[in-house]
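Intended use. Records like the one below are meant for learning the mapping from a protein sequence to its folded structure. Do not use them to infer anything beyond what is encoded.
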Amino acid sequence: MVLNLVNQLRFTRMEFRRGFEGVSEHDGSRRMVPINNIAWIVGHMAWHEQYYWLKRAQGQVLFPDLDESAAFGKDPGVVSLGHMTAHWKVVTAASDGYLSGLTLPDLERHMRVGEKELPFNIGTMIQRVIYHYWYHCGEMQALRQLMRHQNLPQFVSDEIETTGSYYLDKTD
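Structure written out for the chain above:
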């Protein structure tokens, strides 16, 4: 059984995806200082999930280029929205196996990186990623409004409003 906190992360990813669906490569690379561009934001969230759920939790790095192009503190240089979206999809899919296997006691565990125990537990790490996504959802919405995009989402998940539920394991 998948933990509710993991389901919340998946729901948040679904909402994040709505923030960049239909955005052109050109608009995805537009930067309106001081906000990062949409392509960088997507890559940044791919980097964050890879950093926590693949690198720290499992010792895997699928896309080393994310460390150079979209890591925390990196300048939002010229990155491709298509490229970053592809990375994000692969990283989140690869992370799902680890996340789905977590149990309630796991949420209280602290990951170890080498000999060092991290100061926050796995449950807190999941919450940090969820909150990080929502921060960047707001940035993408603001960017798209400034670019005069039409028919933007007005509220969290139109799907919930119309069906009363959502499907967490949506795939492309």
